């Protein structure tokens, strides 16, 4: 079945024949970018807009394969800071039997359902799209085995935990690299405001309502950690101290290197505190989790690439890859 025909078939099955047809989530286009990759556009019914995706295909497409949803950070892949540009994911997954789906949109949204439209970022229903609409489209379009995993970095490391909590049973495993799961504390709110307000120019209260209100507590993975029971969990965060990639050998531009060490180091140190808070809560609840604690490293891509490699065997086992 072709991508286009699968999208049409899915649309026809989602709407009763005797009802007025509402916009459905379907494949709009699929453009091959290599023997195992494609740029795919899916229409989101909840947001009424087209969402671009980067898709990596399994090595062997004759057999059903699991799906890894891999989220970009604060920029949502709309800038040059993406898994596709900054890491080796194309070569890393080339010999593996898994579909890797990465949304290339969603900057500064935390990939969540916003309570109100935002003047800057518009309508955002990312939890609905990622947790309900997109998996149906992916399973109808590709030869999947129905098993999903999800991973994210930085702000999206919070998002993947919330997505697993909100859509229980959808993801067999979750990996969060350098995230801050404490969203309803003063520290967590400040961290989110730095992303959504300072960088994105949007109003964070349009996302989850008044600060420290019920919406922020509802989306705090530490407060809701019990709902992660049964999910294979992988968490990581370094100390923020300069590591092997925080050198001129890897970052030749002195100004970029200084920023990576100073700013990236400070951010990573903060995410380490958050990660330890979540790890402690999971331990109290007797919920197993793999927690990797590198002794050095900043908030930057080479470390996240390493973490994806380290976590992959655990993620792969959960989805039959």
Description:
With about 325 residues, the chain is α/β, with parallel strands linked by helices. The chain has one domain (about 5-320): Rossmann fold, CATH 3.40.50.1820. About 40% of the residues lie in helices and about 20% in strands. The chain is built from 10 helices and 9 strands. The protein has helices at about 5-15, 85, 90, 125-140, 155-165, 185-200, 205-210, 215-220, 255-285, 300-320; strands spanning about 25-35, 35-45, 50-55, 65-70, 100-105, 145-155, 170-175, 230-235, 290. Strands 1-2-3-5-4-6-7-8-9 form a 9-stranded mixed sheet, sandwiched between helices. A hairpin with a 4-residue loop joins β2 and β3 (about 50-55). It is globular.
CATH class: Alpha Beta
User: SS-based structural class?
Assistant: alpha/beta
Along the chain, the helix and strand elements come as HEEEEHHEHEHEHHHEHEH
Q: Which spans have pLDDT < 50 for at least 5 consecutive residues?
A: 1-22
Strand residues, percent: 15-25%
Quickly count the domains.
1
Q: What is the CATH architecture descriptor?
A: 3-Layer(aba) Sandwich
* First and last CA, distance: 23 Å
Number of helices: 10
CATH topology label: Rossmann fold
Total number of beta strands? 9
